[in-house]
Amino acid sequence: MTVLHTLNLILRPCCPLDAPDFIALERDAEVMRFLNGGPVDHDNVDPDSVTFLMPRGHEPHVWTALRRVDGAFVGWFGLFPEGGGLAELGYRLRRDHWGKGLASEGAMALIDWGFGHAGHDRIIACTMTVNQGSRRVMEKTGMTHERTEFPATPVPVAGAEKGEVWYGLSRDRWAARR
């Protein structure tokens, strides 16, 4: 992994010192609303037993996002190889950084890196159908809706009955947009 720079962000490989910031994200009810239905109870939840990523700073495909201007923690982004040239994009940002274009900016940086340097042929991402903010991020990066699934959810989350949407982008479509 390499350090990525955008207009407003520095994305660097995560490290164990990031764990308190990652945990603070998981304790925010709004940040976790579409993943867990609310904040994570760290006294009773094992990060290895949940269906969503709870990074602790040792994950090989997670970048910590910092504001370029002052180094403040913004959130994290991940690009997870799935095999066969496929990778899955993920991200989580602090609420005070929502609505500023930073999620799209960071996601686009990872998509560019994934196609331009990591050799991925296709990048996908998913979110709950009702998570309009995340869907807009995917669309701004050039991803298009490919399917909606209705998986069983272990934790009842409001809106889960509307399913999860999957978006994708091929290397060819990415190259044509550049």
TrEMBL record:
Gene3D superfamilies: 3.40.630.30. It comes from the Bacteria. Residues 9-172 form the N-acetyltransferase domain. The keyword Protein transport does not apply. One of its GO terms (molecular function) is acyltransferase activity, transferring groups other than amino-acyl groups. InterPro entries: Acyl_CoA_acyltransferase (IPR016181), GNAT_dom (IPR000182), N-acetyltransferase (IPR051531). Keywords: Transferase. This is N-acetyltransferase.
